[in-house]
Design brief:
This protein is 97% helix and 0% strand. With 62 residues, the protein is mostly helical. The chain is rod-shaped, with a radius of gyration of 27 Å. It starts with a helix and ends with a helix.
């Protein structure tokens, strides 16, 4: 009887840990998406800055 009760408790704990593991995976996925979005935004800003610098140089030379 005691063994069965302990077994049920452990099964519930395993289930809970598996749910937490799944939630952590989702959190990691969300963080990766956020990082990708920030990286793309940074790249775009750098491209725009380079373009502005080029335009400024052209204006100064004309």
């Amino acid at each position: 009887m005691d063994f069965e009760r302990r077994n049920v408790e452990l099964e519930k704990k395993i289930e809970q840990i598996e749910k937490e593991k799944m939630n952590l995976r989702w959190d990691v996925d969300v963080q990766k998406l956020g990082a990708d979005k920030l990286r793309k935004g940074k790249n775009k800003a750098e491209e725009e800055l380079d373009s502005l610098k080029t335009d400024y140089k052209k204006l100064r030379l004309s």
